[in-house]
């Protein structure tokens, strides 16, 4: 069972910034959807 969960996360596509479309360098399961350049926090 644990192996299936790990395989699921390994197969997730890379996240892209919702503003510019650049690939986000972070964990794919993270809730953020903007890159560092477009993040306005």
TrEMBL record:
<dbReference type="InterPro" id="IPR025432">
    <property type="entry name" value="YhfH-like"/>
</dbReference>
<protein>
    <submittedName>
        <fullName>YhfH family protein</fullName>
    </submittedName>
</protein>
<dbReference type="Pfam" id="PF14149">
    <property type="entry name" value="YhfH"/>
</dbReference>
């Amino acid at each position: 069972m644990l192996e299936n969960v790990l395989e699921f996360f390994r197969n997730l596509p890379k996240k892209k910034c919702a503003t510019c479309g650049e690939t986000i360098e972070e964990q794919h399961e993270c809730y953020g959807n903007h890159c560092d350049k477009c993040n306005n926090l």
